[in-house]
TrEMBL record:
Family: Belongs to the sphingomyelin synthase family.
Keyword vocabulary terms for this entry: Lipid metabolism, Membrane, Sphingolipid metabolism, Transferase, Transmembrane, Transmembrane helix
Residues of the Sphingomyelin synthase-like domain: 287-354
Any single GO CC term annotated in Swiss-Prot or TrEMBL for this entry: plasma membrane
Gene: LOC125538229
Membrane topology: Multi-pass membrane protein
Subcellular location field: Membrane
Predominant cellular place of this UniProt entry's protein: membrane
GO molecular function: ceramide cholinephosphotransferase activity; sphingomyelin synthase activity
Organism of provenance: Triticum urartu
Protein name, per record: Sphingomyelin synthase-like domain-containing protein
Membrane-spanning residues: 20-40, 52-71, 78-102, 147-166, 298-323, 335-352, 413-435
GO terms for biological process, alphabetical: ceramide biosynthetic process
Stretches of the chain forming a coiled coil according to its record: none
């Protein structure tokens, strides 16, 4: 009686390396969030442990990088990666200009007098504060995770490609992340520019901007005369024309910005804000209107989606719980209305699904091998019937080669790229630790 063949076991080194990468990345992510939260519990220990953690992560990446086997794949992903950076930065510039525009459009007096929209999500959280135990409420209020945590968690996920925790190329998932971010930001601009919503924090504009008190000339003509009079609103609907006379308002300040003077009407500068247009954009920050949908939540959702697809496991589930925690805190602290967080969650999920063509955790080489195997299946069967060992060997070699990426770079180019990437990465880490307070 023939003995059954024992299942083929993976080499112990491969198993231990994979297990170490899985446990290490999950542990490093949890440790990063935990140590950073020590800034609220024990600032002294936070100041001691955070540099140690960053140094350990940087040294681990630097030590592993020379042994990384997929530098040629990373090199092929450089141009799409650089293109996504340019696209994302362009989207951020458009967003900053648009944030400033909607902030100054109605004038400072409107910001102070416009009542926040009724938000049942905010009411629900206030009601839960009265019902839940104090410890639970304190946990919901705690700043466990913020925007920079999500960005750094994604950076850790991207660099984990060095340890074979996710599929190469690491620049591929970074390209998808930034491209999706840019598309999401442009959709967000189209949303909040289309309809101006009052902030949940009416005092915000007075504390951040030196904008004119009166509305923009466009709002003076097309909005103000019909803002509160129901008969005027009905009349403008019936005639479909702006008919009311514009009241007398102060003249608009118009500095000379040279080629950028076309931005004067959009940004509405004041003499006290400086002569340069980019100084105004620096102050835009998150804006002082309600900007549907939440940009912070979009970053959080994209990070969670990237972890779920590329890595999975319990740490991805934990990140989704942190996303929900961030959402309720955005509403609780009135940075956004509930609708902004809900829309950001499903828009982020859908956008990440739609950009699978840029990078996917699915093994494309395996799919190519299966397609080639299906193509030569009949020939392989005939060769097996004829006991043609050489033909079988050649066909299997074709299948194996179908899964390989086409070589296109010399070893010298790959080594130069690897060295440049390592130096650039470590430089960014050092600058982040020295020039910022939280990395």
């Amino acid at each position: 009686m023939a003995r059954a063949k024992a299942p083929r076991r993976k080499p112990p080194q491969a198993v231990s390396r994979r297990l170490l990468g899985f446990c290490g990345l999950s542990f490093a992510a949890a440790l990063y969030v935990g140590i950073d939260y020590l800034r609220y519990l024990s600032p002294t220990w936070h100041d001691r442990l955070q540099p140690v953690l960053w140094a350990a992560l940087a040294l681990a990446a630097a030590a592993r990088a020379p042994f990384y086997r997929h530098w040629d794949v990373e090199l092929r992903a450089v141009l799409p990666f650089l293109g996504s950076i340019v696209f994302m930065l362009s989207a951020f510039l458009i967003e900053m200009i648009s944030v400033r525009f909607v902030s100054v459009l109605m004038g400072l007096q409107w910001h102070g007098s416009a009542a926040p929209l009724p938000d049942t999500g905010q009411w629900l959280l206030l009601a839960l504060n009265e019902k839940l135990p104090g410890s639970v409420v304190d946990l919901l209020r705690a700043h466990v995770i913020t925007l920079h945590h999500y960005l750094m968690l994604f950076m850790m996920l991207g660099f984990s490609v060095l340890f074979d925790c996710i599929k190469a190329p690491g620049l591929g998932i970074a390209t998808r992340y930034m491209f999706t971010m840019a598309v999401g930001r442009l959709l967000r601009v189209a949303t909040f520019v289309g309809t101006i919503l009052p902030s949940a924090r009416p005092w915000c504009a007075a504390g951040r901007y030196q904008i004119p008190g009166h509305p923009h000339p466009w709002a003076q003509k097309y909005y103000v005369p019909y803002a509160s009079d129901s008969h005027a609103i009905r009349a403008v609907i019936d005639t479909d024309m702006a008919y009311a006379d514009v009241q007398a308002y102060p003249d608009e300040y118009s500095p000379d910005w040279g080629r950028m003077s076309f931005l004067v009407d959009i940004l509405r500068p004041t003499p006290g804000e400086g002569p340069a247009w980019y100084h105004l954009l620096k102050k835009a920050s998150g804006g002082c209107n309600d900007l549907m949908y939440s940009g912070h939540m979009l970053v959080a959702v994209l990070t969670a989606m990237a972890w779920t697809e590329a890595y999975g496991g319990w740490i991805s589930v934990a990140i989704w719980f942190l996303v929900l925690h961030s959402a309720q805190r955005e509403v609780r602290e009135r940075h956004h209305y509930t609708v902004d967080c809900v829309v950001a969650i499903y828009v982020g999920i859908l956008l990440w699904r739609m950009t699978r063509f840029i990078w996917s955790a699915r093994d494309a080489s395996r799919a190519r091998r299966l397609a080639k195997l299906e193509e030569v299946q009949s020939r392989l069967i005939h060769a097996a019937k004829d006991a043609d060992v050489n033909e079988i060997r050649d066909l299997l070699k074709e299948v194996e080669l179908a899964g390989h990426d086409k070589p296109g770079f010399s070893q010298r180019a790959i080594l130069a790229f690897a060295a440049a990437t390592i130096i650039f990465t470590l430089t960014c880490v050092v600058l982040a630790l020295t020039l910022t307070s939280d990395g």
